[in-house]
């Protein structure tokens, strides 16, 4: 997840910021863009969009994808490998714990970390029973939806967290908005675990606990299961296992 310190906004770097935002438009879900689409997405003139795109092509990060579209080049693989090399080895340490937990509860177990304003599934061990989830490895998820994401959101620096919450609050129902209030997130961070009901997938309950490296939250361990197979006693049992699993992973990282 990287440092939890909020990066200060650099003044006088508007053009550089737009250039980087253009590069970040290219995702697994949207791998190709035309110049017109990029201009509309970033609220740029077509002329400016062409100029930024030309710079990214010049350094080899973008190339033509045919039919007036552009794509990220293989040069980006080096950035991905650099990211992996610099990260805490969360998946390696977590996998044995996740596998054991799956054997104990036979529900899908996941580990996630934060990257910017998104939560990313690092790895997951599938339940042997049917369960349909949207949290796939490598997929970016909103920080305000679900127990895994909320653990990571609660651990963000206060100013950065407030800015993110303010950007999404108007679109949320009252109950969800209440869980993102400063006091509620502070309480989640202090407690180190939380649960959610149908926030990401319909009919799915989830719980998650913070994974620490020293005093930093570097990830979250969680599980998800259909509401119909998790009554109150079952939820309490699973929450206890998730919390102990997160503590074991934290100890392994330390």
From TrEMBL:
<feature type="domain" description="IclR-ED">
    <location>
        <begin position="71"/>
        <end position="254"/>
    </location>
</feature>
<dbReference type="Pfam" id="PF09339">
    <property type="entry name" value="HTH_IclR"/>
</dbReference>
<dbReference type="Pfam" id="PF01614">
    <property type="entry name" value="IclR_C"/>
</dbReference>
<protein>
    <submittedName>
        <fullName>IclR family transcriptional regulator</fullName>
    </submittedName>
</protein>
<dbReference type="InterPro" id="IPR029016">
    <property type="entry name" value="GAF-like_dom_sf"/>
</dbReference>
<dbReference type="InterPro" id="IPR014757">
    <property type="entry name" value="Tscrpt_reg_IclR_C"/>
</dbReference>
<dbReference type="GO" id="GO:0003700">
    <property type="term" value="F:DNA-binding transcription factor activity"/>
</dbReference>
<dbReference type="InterPro" id="IPR050707">
    <property type="entry name" value="HTH_MetabolicPath_Reg"/>
</dbReference>
<keyword id="KW-0805">Transcription regulation</keyword>
<keyword id="KW-0804">Transcription</keyword>
<keyword id="KW-0238">DNA-binding</keyword>
<dbReference type="InterPro" id="IPR036390">
    <property type="entry name" value="WH_DNA-bd_sf"/>
</dbReference>
<dbReference type="GO" id="GO:0045892">
    <property type="term" value="P:negative regulation of DNA-templated transcription"/>
</dbReference>
<dbReference type="InterPro" id="IPR005471">
    <property type="entry name" value="Tscrpt_reg_IclR_N"/>
</dbReference>
<dbReference type="GO" id="GO:0003677">
    <property type="term" value="F:DNA binding"/>
</dbReference>
<dbReference type="InterPro" id="IPR036388">
    <property type="entry name" value="WH-like_DNA-bd_sf"/>
</dbReference>
């Amino acid at each position: 997840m990287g440092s939890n310190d909020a990066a200060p906004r650099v003044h006088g770097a508007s053009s550089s910021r737009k250039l980087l935002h253009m590069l970040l438009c290219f995702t697994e879900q949207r791998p190709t863009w035309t110049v017109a689409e990029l201009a509309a997405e970033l609220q740029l003139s077509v002329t400016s969009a062409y100029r930024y795109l030309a710079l990214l092509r010049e350094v080899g990060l973008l190339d033509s994808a045919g039919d007036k579209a552009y794509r990220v080049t293989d040069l980006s693989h080096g950035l991905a490998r650099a990211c992996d090399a610099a990260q805490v080895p969360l998946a390696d340490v977590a996998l044995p714990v996740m596998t054991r937990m799956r054997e104990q509860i036979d529900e899908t177990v996941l580990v996630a970390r934060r990257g910017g304003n998104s939560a990313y599934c690092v790895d997951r061990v599938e339940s042997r029973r049917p369960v349909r989830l949207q949290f796939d490895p490598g997929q970016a998820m909103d920080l305000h939806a679900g127990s895994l994401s909320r653990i990571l959101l609660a651990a963000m620096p206060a100013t950065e967290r407030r800015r993110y919450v303010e950007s999404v609050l108007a679109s949320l129902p009252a109950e969800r908005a209440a869980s993102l209030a400063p006091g509620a997130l502070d309480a989640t961070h202090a407690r180190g675990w939380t649960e959610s009901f149908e926030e990401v997938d319909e009919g799915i309950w989830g719980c998650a606990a913070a994974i620490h490296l020293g005093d930093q939250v570097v990830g979250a361990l969680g599980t998800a299961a259909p509401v119909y197979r998790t009554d109150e006693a079952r939820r309490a049992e699973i929450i206890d296992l998730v919390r102990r699993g997160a503590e074991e992973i934290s100890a392994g990282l330390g």
